[in-house]
Structures are given as C-alpha cells and as structure tokens.
Amino acid sequence: MAGDASLEGRLARKYRQPRGVEQFGIEPIPEELKTVRWYDLFLIIVNFLLNPGIILIGGLAVAAGLSFWAAMTAMVLGIAIAFGAYIVMATVGVDYGLPGMVATRAIYGIRGSQWLLSVFRAASSVYWFAFQTLAGALGITAILNAWLGVEFSLVAVSLVFAVLQVLVALVGYGTLKTLSRVAFPLKVVILLFLLYLLATYDDPNFAPGAVLGYEGEVGWQWAVLVVWLNSIAAAWFSMITDAADFCRYSRTRLDMWIGTMAAAIVGTVFSAALGAYAAAATLGRVSNPFELIPEITTSGLVFFLALLVLVLDNWTINVLNLYTGGLSLANLLTGLGRFWTTLIVSAIGVGLSVFPDVVNGYTGFMTIMGNFFAPIAGVLIVDYLFVKRMRLDVLALFDRNLSYWYVGGFNPIAVVWTVLGFGIYMLLPAVTIQTLSSLILTGAGYYVTVRLVAARYRAFGDAAKPGQQREEISAGEVAAP
Question: Which listed site, 55, 108, 337, 415, has its alpha carbon 20 to 30 Å from 299?
C-alpha cells in the first residue's frame, strides 16, 4: 500500500488538496484499491433512498389523489425503469475505476462531456441537495416547534443543516462508507418505530386496513399515476452519468449488481410506504409524516428519535449529492481536483437550500431534468452497450489526439440526438411515460445514425469501434485534455 500512499500524495500536491481527504477525482482507481463489497455499496445507495425526499414524494403522490397502492406502484415502477438504465452505466465504474462523467467523454466527446453533461449534472446535484435539505428541515422544524414550544426558522435550520453535511462530502468516499454502516441500522429501527406509531394511533383512518384500502380521489387513474412514475424515473435518470461514481471502488460486477438492485428495491419500497401511509391516513391532508408526528404524540423520546433519523437521513444522502456533483464539476474544471470542485458545488447548494420554494417546484424541475437526461440516457446506454460493446479506450479519454476527440471535442451525432430527444420528450403525451419512451426512441435513432455515419467518416468510425485495451494508465499520469 506504500505505492498507493505515494500516489495519493502526488495527487494531493498536484491539486493542493488537504491530506486525509479522498484524492481521486477524474483519475481511474487503481485495481488494488477496489475492495468494496456488495453490502457496503448496498448501504451507501439504500441510505440514499431512505430519505425525507423520497418519503415526501410517496406522500405527495397520495395527496395528488392516487390510492395507497397506486402511489406505491408508481414509485416502484419509476425506480425499476431508471435503475435498469442506471446499472448499465454503473458497470463503467467497476470495469475501469472511472467516475461516470469522465466515461461519457467516450460518447459525447471530451468537450461535449465537459461543457454540456458536466454542467447539467452539477446543476441537478445542487438542486437535489437543496431539495433533500429542505425536506429534512421541514420535518425538523415541525418536531422542534412541537417539542420545545419555540418557533424555529425553516431557513435557519436548513442553512445550518446544509453546512454540516458539506463537511462529510468534502472528506470523500471512505467517510461515506463508514457513515452508511453506522446510519443504516439506526434509520431502519427508528423508521419502523415511526410507522408503528402511525399504525397504532387512535384514529380509525390510521389503521393498517384503512390505509392499505385507501382509494384516493382518482384511485388508479393512469394520467395521474404516470406523472409520479415519470417524476421518480426522471430523478434517477438525472443521476445516470454518476452511476459509476458509487461503484468505482467495487471489487466485482456481481458485487455492484447485487448491492445496487437490492438497495433500489428495499429503499424505495420502505421510504415511499412511510410517506404514502401518512398521506392516506390523513386522507391526503399531510404528505410529510415527520410533520404529522407532533399531532399524534407528545413524547420527548419520539421527538428525539425523529430528529435523529432526519439528521442521519440527510447526512447519508446529501453528502452523495455533493460528492457526485463535485466529481461532475471536476470533469469540467480539470485543474482543481475533487476537493475544490466539491467545495464549489457545496457553496451553491447551501445557498439554494434557503429558498423553501425549492420543495414546491419538485415536479416541475424534475420534468425539466427528465427532458434532458432521458435522451442523454438513451444515447449513453446504446453507445456503450451496442456501439462500443462495453469496451472503452481509457487513454483516449484524456488525449485530444485520439479517437474520443471526434470533431472539435464534440460528438455531433450525440449532441443532435440529445436535442431531438428533448423535442421528442416534449411532444410525447404524459401517458406514454415520457422518460422511457424518449430514451428508447432517442437511443434507436442514435444507433442508426452512428452506423450510417461511421462507415463514411473516420472521426466517427474510430470512436465507434470497441476501445483498444491499452496498457493501464495510472492516476498520476492523467493530464487535462
């Protein structure tokens, strides 16, 4: 491990990053550092899904008129669609040790990845950070107000909470792994206890039978159900470029597949059920179960446990938003290093988290993100699976003289089909599941175009071939293209 310490020391000096934080940004992870097993990856991702944001979305779906089971179906189907795509791009991290955004250079071109995808993804990370922070702060203020009898400012709580989360994200992956191991069992026990409190509250509408049988105002109406299905799918499509970020320390593909899919199922079902339960029990009046707790109990212990789970929730999820956002920005600002780009993303996210309207604008913002990231996902998946056959030329990702430079650093075919996919998304009616439909149509159009153009133009033909498996380059040899 002496060589690894020396390598990390060189990266610390190169980027002038503090010692003791994760030094790897755009650089590939050395094979000897890929030691993460499926359970650690499961804990990181499931903690991301066991959060106030997903809980709130489950409640909002019921408040919008869906039945309890319709809301649950929308959440689970949305995650299933998104993770089918997500897991493909996560494989890049296992195979090459690269962050997802750097891998997209092979498909959009080095500059296309930097100037287009990095900006989109960093913006999405900042929004998610602010949304999750405010969702948690809403619950915290409601509990503190009821417990202590003092009116706390939502903005002040959100701001303090946001700053505390930044500290963990700056340290890096090792801290995420350790924090997830500690937080998961505590969160599960506390959330199950809160669900028990709801189910045993002395109101017939809170009884499990009444909640599970709640039909809502529109029941299973597809036009409403698909809005929430599309929203949750769009949220995860916006993270597809970062799927590899969580997995590049993974030991094997099997570890990644098991850990990721198990986390997706467990986390979504548990979180969405808690939010949907609270909304159904109150006949759609309250969509955030943490705001409901002060109405059903005055126990100081319960208030403390609710506060604890909210703090753990935000620490284990929002650090990931900042972490991936920092890696996305590092792909653009290659001279700064992961620590500094994470600090920039954090500063913007903290600033945005003082605006409560961020929560109210969830569906609108995620629809916009879906407009962009669904066609982006279509291009990425089709190119990686069917054009490059899951083989990248790692050296070409960092060298403008090799195949992934395309035309002036951009792959115009990918860019054009992303724009066309955006148009397709906008033209499709909501009932078609816009995220999935636009992904498929964009991917198909991109594949046909690449095959036609690659046969005539060398700049595209070379990039369309499965990447050469050159001798592995070390992180210390990576240079900004």
Answer: 55
Tokens of 404: 């992934």
* CA-angle at 186, arms to 182 and 190, nearest 5°: 165
DSSP result, 418-454: HHHHHHHHHHS-GGG-HHHHHHHHHHHHHHHHHHHHH
Contacts of 363 (CB under 8 A, 6+ apart): 227, 231
Distance CA 442, CA 382 (A): 9
Q: Is domain 37-361 classified as CATH 3.70.10.10?
A: no
| Pairwise CA distance, residues 140 & 148, whole Å | 12
Q: Enumerate the β-bridge partners of residue 66.
A: 219
d(CA 274, CA 71): 11
Which one, of 422, 194, 390, lies nearest residue 308 by Cα? 194
Express each pLDDT in 295-334 by its tens digit. 888 888 888 888 888 778 777 777 778 888 999 999 999 9
pLDDT tens readout for residues 385-406: 999 999 999 999 999 999 999 9
> Hey, what are 8's tokens?
């990390």
pLDDT of residue 114: 94
pLDDT for position 5: 52
Beta carbons within 8 Å of 266's beta carbon, 6+ residues apart: 46, 49
Q: Which residue has the tokens 């009821």?
A: 146
List % helix, strand, coil for the chain (3-state, nearest 5): 75, 0, 25
- 186's tokens: 């505590």
List 250's β-bridge partners, or say none: 36
pLDDT of residue 472: 58
Q: What is the dihedral of CA 387, 392, 398, 403, to 10 degrees?
A: -40
How much is the mean pLDDT over the chain?
A: 86
Query: ∠20-21-27 over CA atoms, to 5°?
Result: 125
Tokens 């790692």, residue located: 394
Q: Which amino acid type is present at position 318?
A: N
CA nearest to 416, candidates 105, 108, 104 = 108
Say how far apart CA 397 and CA 202 lie, in whole Å: 61
Kindly state the average pLDDT of the residues 173-198.
Answer: 84
Q: Which two tokens stand for residue 400?
A: 């403008």
The predicted pLDDT at position 1 comes to: 36
Q: What angle is formed at CA 456 by the lines to CA 398 and CA 445, rounded to 5 degrees?
A: 80
- CA 8 – CA 183 distance, rounded (Å): 28
Domain boundaries defined on the chain? 37-361
Query: Tokens 């993100």 appear where?
Result: 369
Other residues' Cβ atoms within 10 Å of the Cβ of residue 6: 11
- Label residues 68-77 b or e (16+ Cβ within 10 Å = b): bbbbbbbbbb
Q: Please give the average per-residue pLDDT across 422-440, as a whole number.
A: 90
Beta strand ranges found along 92-245 (DSSP E): none
Q: Given the structure tokens 């809301």, which residue do they identify?
A: 71
